[in-house]
Amino acid sequence: MRYIIIGAGAVGGTVGGRLAQAGREVVLVARGPHLAALQEHGLRLRVPQGESTHRLRAVDGPEPLGELRADDVLVLAVKTQDTVAALETWGDVPVAGGGTAAGLLPLVCLQNGVEGGRLALRRFRHVYGVCVWLPSTFVEPGVVSAAGAPLTGVLHLGRLPHGTDDTARRIAADLADAHFEAPVVPDVARWQYAKLLGNLGNALEAVSGPVASEEARALFARVRAEGEAVLDAAGIPYAGAEEQRAARGDKVTLVPLDGAPRGGGSSWQSLVRGTGTIEADYLNGEIVLLGRLHGVPTPLNELLRALANRFAREHRAAGSLPVADLVRLADEAVRV
């Protein structure tokens, strides 16, 4: 199989680089200075085992590839807010022998949240979800790092909306050869919703810095409790904390990397890079949506969604709102 990584940033670049290390054929899709660096210098991947450079084909879209191959796997690793554009770009691309990508090829959603998979199912017939447990960083154009050891990440994988098949097992086997654990599960959404609850802290980290102080941790606990109440009201199952700990164990322990600071999570990195957008609408916003559908108040997640979007839109510095001020705003939001 050939893996086409649509969105070769921190997560996509790490998966693409690791697959290339394992001898799999990989194409990277990127844009701007990152694409230029990939084309000129290759992908530089920094991991605890050392730095490696991979001279992979890098393109800005499907046109340079011509017809896609019947053995291609599309790996969608863009942020959720960029999903529709990516699906529209790749869905109608012809596949050798007849048919289109949307009708024939597997599309693996390597994304946070759950909305990307739902959007994909509107257009693609064979969609696979992944619960992404992969601490990684976009260091600079052409360079990504992943500090996990002994494994780079744990990627629960399954068909959407549910089920497993031979394609999922073949992809999982390739990932297993590439320093990942990739359990194939029939209920991948249950793992994705569990990860979503953890990702509710992404916006908090983005606007106020690491969730490290007692005050920040207490606020995150309140934000997460809102999310759990919403999922329970909606009847949506999610893997519990003990089950997650048992699945991950000490398989992905962060190791300091020279020249590649871990920094913050995906939302924090979006602010640092000044992309102008952030995925809070599909993390905290997912809880807000479900809360409105099922009559559960979600003032804290609504506040974080709005603040994160404002920070991205106005290019504010990541972590620049003191946590004490955020707690005050949160208390005011609850009282309204």
Automatic annotation (TrEMBL):
Signal peptide: none annotated. The keyword NADP applies. GO terms for cellular component: cytoplasm. It holds the Pfam family ApbA_C. The keyword Transferase does not apply. Residues 188-309 form the Ketopantoate reductase C-terminal domain. Keywords: NADP, Oxidoreductase. GO terms for molecular function: 2-dehydropantoate 2-reductase activity; NADP binding. Residues 4-158 form the Ketopantoate reductase N-terminal domain. It comes from the Bacteria. InterPro entries: 6-PGluconate_DH-like_C_sf, 6PGD_dom2, Ketopantoate_reductase, KPA_reductase, KPR_N, NAD(P)-bd_dom_sf. Coiled coil: none annotated. Belongs to the ketopantoate reductase family. This is 2-dehydropantoate 2-reductase.
